[in-house]
Design a protein that fits this description.
- By secondary structure, the protein is mostly helical.
- 51% of the residues lie in helices and 5% in strands.
- It is built from 8 helices and 2 strands.
- The protein has a two-stranded antiparallel sheet with strand order 1-2.
- Helix 3 (51-62) crosses helix 4 and helix 7 (130-150) packs antiparallel against helix 8.
- It is elongated and about 60 Å long.
- The model is unreliable at 1-7 (pLDDT under 50).
């Protein structure tokens, strides 16, 4: 089960252009350390991007606090369509519809922490720096997962049998952020 928060500001008629591409549905996103170990792979990946996506990467290097939501979503969609970001990671790190796990497989609803409520309130505002936002979101999810893991039923057993959906979403945000940071630090000239 998930909460859904839509903070796109994009008309629903255009949502279809941001659906997962199906190129890498269940696989992991590219691990940038693996990508770097293959000579020329990072440059090949960047070279395949459109001019707009390359400009977004350049702007992330030069002015990371002023990225438009649409530019970020376009870059993520391109990387997903190329298979660099898996469909699962694309969905779980997306700014378009924020899916928040709310229950374990047994249907036990996760108690919402104040920190998570505050973070959800902030999801409605575009931060301008998507990498910082992904880091904050991943940290909040990890913190929430750790709190949920300590919760006990009256008989002393864990209240939640499985909090892995929370940790999976945190990991997805970390992988996507890591891939982008890796592209930015690859020492490659990113020019439109």
């Amino acid at each position: 089960m998930d909460y859904i928060v839509n903070n796109t500001g994009i008309p629903s008629s255009q949502w279809g252009q941001y659906k997962p591409a199906g190129m890498n549905p269940d696989g992991p996103s590219l691990d940038f350390s693996t990508l770097l170990s293959k000579e020329g792979a990072a440059k090949t990946l960047i070279d395949q991007l459109s001019g707009g996506a390359k400009r977004t990467l350049q702007q992330l290097k030069s002015a990371p606090n002023s990225i438009s939501k649409r530019d970020w979503m376009d870059l993520m969609h391109e990387l997903n369509a190329m298979g660099a970001i898996s469909d699962k990671d694309y969905q779980q790190s997306s700014f378009s519809l924020r899916l928040v796990p709310i229950a374990d497989r047994e249907g036990n609803t996760y108690a919402m922490s104040q920190d998570m409520r505050d973070m959800l309130d902030r999801t409605g505002r575009w931060p301008g720096n998507p990498l910082e936002y992904l880091d904050d979101w991943a940290f909040s999810l990890k913190k929430w997962g750790a709190l949920l893991s300590t919760q006990r039923s009256p008989d002393g057993t864990p209240q939640y049998q499985d909090v892995s959906p929370v940790y999976r979403q945190s990991s997805a945000c970390t992988r996507v952020s890591g891939l982008i940071r890796g592209l930015l630090s690859a020492g490659l000239a990113v020019s439109p």
